[in-house]
Amino acid sequence: MTAAHEKLLQGFALQQSGRLAEAEALYQQVLALEPNHFDALQLSGVIAAQTGDAARAAALLKRAVSVDPANPGAHYNLGYALEDLKDYTGAIASYDNAIRLQPGHVLAHNNRGIALGALKQYAAAVDSYERAIALAPNFAEAHHNRGVALAALDRRGEALAAFTRAVQLKPDYAEAFHSRALVNRALRHLQAARKDCDTALALRPSFAEAHNTLGAIDSDQHHPAAALTHYTQALALKPDYAEAHNNKGLALAALGEGAAALASFDTAIALSPDDAEAYHNRATTLNAFGRLEEALRDIDRARALNPAYDYLAGTRLFTKMRICDWHNFNSDVADISARILRGEKASPPFPIAAFVESPAVQRRAAEIWTQEECPADDSLGPIVRPLGAGKIKLGYFSMDFRFHPVSLLTAGLFETHDRAAFEVIAFSFGPDTRDDTRKRIVAAFDRFIDVRGKSDREIAALSRELEIDIAIDLAGHTIDARSGIFAHRAAPIQCSYLGYPATMGAPYIDYLIADETVIPASHRPHYSEKIVCLPSFQVNDRSRQISARMFTRAACGLPETGFVYCCFNNIFKFTPAVFDSWMRILTAVDGSSLFLFADTQAAMDNLRREAAQRGIDPARLVFGGRLGPADYAARFRVADLFLDTLPYNAGTTASDALWSGLPVLTRTGESFASRMAASLLKAIGMPELITSTAANYEALAIAIGGDPARLEALKAKLAAHRLTTPLFDVTQFTRHIETAYRRMTERHAAGLPPDHLFIV
Predict the structure, then answer these.
(1) Are 369 and 351 in contact (CB under 8 A)?
(2) What is the pLDDT of residues 87-142, one digit of tens each?
(3) Are residues 639 and 523 part of one domain?
(4) Is 191 within the bounds of a domain?
(5) Are 403 and 437 in contact (CB under 8 A)?
(6) Does 637 lie in the same domain as 582?
């Protein structure tokens, strides 16, 4: 036996017993005697890999491979070292060499799959894992890894089966239980996901990722405080866990702790600067604070990191619209519309109404969102009870039972319902603001149930337990809505009303309450619901107050003379095309001004710049801020004519203007949102203020602006019609919608499916 060989054997024995440093010293002695000693090179490379020195491991193993290129083990070990260095392409080449030399090399097939997965070549990774499994059917790790790749391909059912096989083969496989939990969560099998996380933690109490996933499950079930506890536990175990910091930020935001949420997102970004999700989430919180320019910077950073980030394009454009930043507006709209029609997740549904008039695009966006975010869930089973012969039980669901446009419109409806025929129950999942509107709303219901602490499934189950006959969603796809409640089928009949002027694109919403103006018969194919056509879609409350305060032009910053146009719509409803019309109107009407609502300096600066670019003195744009409701109503009287927006008309704001005595000029489009003001004007008997083209809209605005007698005639007609036409007749409206509710229940009781209903 040579001295080199003797030292090699001694080193190998030490390595086997875990005495790596001593073994390595002997291997170096061998290499000093024989620099190309294959075994010493390979074993020394393995020790370098074991001790975390991947670069040295790769260098030694490359030398070993050059000495004996026909040794499959050396190629495999080199691949492992290259994988540690994140040289996945080089690792795959090494595994391929090992497999070429030894086709039955199970570990090479498995690790080749891992490297392919790191390169996001998931289909090829699945193939590698399947080859490993064919060679070793009881190789639990290969089954698990195959499940990970299948999940990445959205082949979730197959992924679940793979993880289940892994834990059958290896019952103490905590990682596989956790991976199965992730897929179960994605499939919204939340109880199964929770059980798998609990098992993973029982097997490995220090499993930070399992705590993080439990937090995510609690967040899914709208339990942010419980979620925060799990994220805190995850971070105690793993302080540099960027994903847990990000998720903690989401929980804090849901709890109303915005500043703390931003701090968590900051930490997540510091730890993982290339994580698009953390930038997106921080942008969402900044948006809620009104810090729109900062939010836009974060959105742009997220887009740069991941151009395909779900729904980001629409969120970005909507954020820009909130500050009237219209750069590339038309091309952005065209791109988002095209992507939606291709089935891509380009925008949440709600922003679409602000920049896309097409009801076909709006429906497709809603369908994409519904399928991904709140698909139908039959886990509660069917509702088999017949509808009762007694009172019809109505359940109104909203997060906005407070000072909010929806509640300001509907308060009178809730109060006016016929209690001899209907029992009226509120399900509130929004904040308890304790304002006057909230108090009035609470008093208006037979029962007012705060369900904030319950999951969607629990709320749907409660609704069933209370035997609600008709569940009315007042939120739709707006921010903080809970469509998952209806996905679980909260009542035998479910309908959408008022809060969301578009189709839900959801198979579980049976009816949409509207009228023939907002949804003409020819438009019905663009709505997934059956349409309930009332004489007028919008309920209104006659008890809204107008303060006695007399606003002067000077107090509002307006010129003492000249015609005053106004638009107090939310500023995100302004588009370049609408603004073009407004500037042409100002050009044609000498001395006129435009009174707008804006609550950010960026929006005001951008609008002034846009005016100047169109040849209008920016001083002719005057901005008003927020006021209390009674003063807000009184301020309309300082203006002469309200100019509406397109494609998202004024809704509540148009009613506010009309109630205050200010005529509203609108232009109609193709979507529900673009036809709302026309419906209101018909209901108050002033169809002469409805136009359908930009040219007619501008011509009528100019004509009224130059004809004081015509304006006075319009105001006199509005004053005469205000209390004598249907728009502000809440009692008549309530009887109409109650008739619709009866017709719905009659059809259901007769075993008939939902159908279009016409109430006169």
Answers:
(1) no
(2) 999 999 999 999 999 999 999 999 999 999 999 999 999 999 999 999 999 999 99
(3) no
(4) no
(5) yes
(6) yes
My answer on whether 526 and 649 are in the same domain is no
**Rg of the chain in Å (alpha carbons):** 33
Range of the domain at 559: 553-728
Segment 13-72, tens digit of pLDDT: 999 999 999 999 999 999 999 999 999 999 999 999 999 999 999 999 999 999 999 999
374 phi and psi angles, rounded to 5 deg: -150, 60
- The answer as to whether 201 is a domain residue is no
In the chain, the N- to C-terminal Cα span, in Å, equals 106
* Whether residue 388 has pLDDT greater than 90: no
Does residue 261 belong to any structural domain of this protein?
yes
Q: Which residues contact 758 (CB under 8 A, 6 or more apart)?
A: 533
Question: Residue 677 has what pLDDT?
Answer: 98
Q: What is the CATH number of the domain that holds 453?
A: 3.40.50.11380
Question: Which of 207, 267, 201 lies closest to 237, judged by CA?
Answer: 207
- Residue 1's pLDDT band, with cuts at 50, 70 and 90, is low
In terms of domains, do 518 and 561 share one?
no
DSSP state, residue 474: S
Same structural domain for residues 571 and 677? yes
pLDDT in tens, 547-605: 999 999 999 999 999 999 999 999 999 999 999 999 999 999 999 999 999 989 999 99
Contact yes or no for 662/668 (Cβ under 8 A): no
DSSP assignment letter at 611: H
pTM for the whole thing? Answer: 0.93
Distance of alpha carbon 667 from alpha carbon 174, whole angstroms: 61
Q: Mean pLDDT across the chain, nearest whole number? A: 97
Shared-domain flag, residues 636 and 519: no
C-alpha closest to that of 498 among 672, 371, 668 = 672
Count of domains for the chain: 4
Output the 3-class SS for 282-293. HHHHHHHCCCHH
pLDDT by residue (tens digit) across 634-672?
A: 999 999 999 999 999 999 999 999 999 999 999 999 999
The SS3 of residue 665 is: strand
**C-alpha span between 464 and 229 (Å, rounded):** 31
Q: How many C-beta neighbours within 10 Å does residue 172 have?
A: 11
Instruction: Report the distance separating Cα 610 and Cα 598, nearest Å.
Output: 15
Residue 103 token pair:
């086709």
- Whether residues 430 and 511 share a domain: the answer is yes
- Cis check: omega of the bond before 647, within 30 degrees of 0: yes
The residue among 503, 534, 565 that closes a domain is 534
Distances 573 to 369, 400, 643 between C-alpha atoms, Å: 22, 21, 12
Strand arrangement, sheet containing 564-567: 621-624, 593-597, 564-567, 641-643, 664-667, 690-691
**How many Cα neighbours within 13 Å face the side chain of 556?**
30
Residue 691: CB partners within 8 Å, gap ≥ 6? 665, 666, 667, 668, 697, 700
Residue 548 resides in a domain: no
Same domain, 365 and 400: no
- Residues near 308 by beta carbon (within 8 Å), at least 6 away in sequence: none
The domain spanning residue 293 has which CATH number?
1.25.40.10
| d(C-alpha 56, C-alpha 70), whole Å | 22
